[in-house]
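Action item from last week, closing it out:
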Amino acid sequence: MQKIKKGDKVVVLAGKDKGRTGTVTQVMPKDDRAVVSGVNMVKRHQKQTASQEAGIVSKEAPIHLSNLSVADPKDGKPTRVGFKVVGEGENAKKVRFAKRSGEQIDG
């Protein structure tokens, strides 16, 4: 189970966007990177195609997972993620929770 998943609200811990928050739109576990909306914007030159015009476009670049932390559901500050099993027997589910407040992140 991953600590950071698609749809999570995260806080950037390091780099040019330090302190900014955003939602994870894509996770690349093999590269240990994630794409966060509105964070780590880069400008790219684009060739003209039948559907798109040529020019310089801004888009999000992947950011390393070590520079991200899940935002606490209670106050939005960065927190570490823990795992615990909720339920018993066949109903048991492994869920993520915020170490800071103890609040459940998913499930």
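Closing note: The longest strand covers residues 21-28.
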